[in-house]
Design goal:
9 strands, globular
Length: 173
């Protein structure tokens, strides 16, 4: 893997929700590009372009963490208008997820990997190149990820393609 193609992020795969998310995409029938079912995920932290040294250090640090399991109720549609993204997320993210985000964000900041957003908003992207001012209410979906993945993002003419580089299981209590 070359340094020029080492655009990384940490996320929870959401393929187990693919049938429900695809039905929701069909129901919404919005213009724009649908995220393909195999690419559904909920980002924990986007690092962007990383050096091999940053990646190696991050992997070692995550290997030493206890990653807590959690459950989410995805009950809210939203739009990041500037980014042209329609998403599904929780109204009330669990504390364990937010604490994990803070831990990872501090580790990434210490490595100089990625820039934090104004506020972490857990979500699964449904559409890209799309905006909508009025989104309908939806029936909630329940999501219980089983692992955290380090993804490499490959930018293509058809949109980004994500490749899982490493996976860590979440610890059930």
């Amino acid at each position: 893997m070359t340094e020029t193609n080492n655009r990384l992020f940490l996320a929870f795969a959401a393929q187990q929700l693919a049938p429900e998310l695809t039905l929701l995409q069909n129901r919404l029938a919005l213009p724009g590009r649908r995220v393909p079912p195999e690419q559904f995920h909920m980002t924990l932290h986007f690092m962007g372009q990383c050096t091999p040294e940053q990646q190696t250090s991050l992997l070692a640090q995550i290997d030493r963490l206890t990653l807590p399991a959690f459950a989410l109720t995805l009950d809210r549609l939203g739009c990041f208008a500037k980014a042209g993204v329609i998403w599904l997320g929780p109204s009330a993210p669990p504390d364990s997820l937010m604490k994990l985000y803070e831990t990872i964000e501090l580790k990434c900041r210490a490595l100089g990997a990625g820039k934090p957003h104004r506020a972490y908003r857990p979500h699964i992207t449904l559409f890209r190149n799309c905006t909508s001012e009025a989104l309908p209410p939806i029936a909630p979906l329940h999501y219980r990820p089983d692992s955290l993945c380090l993804y490499r993002s490959e930018l293509t003419a058809q949109g980004p393609v994500y490749h899982c580089q490493k996976r860590w299981p979440l610890k059930r209590e």
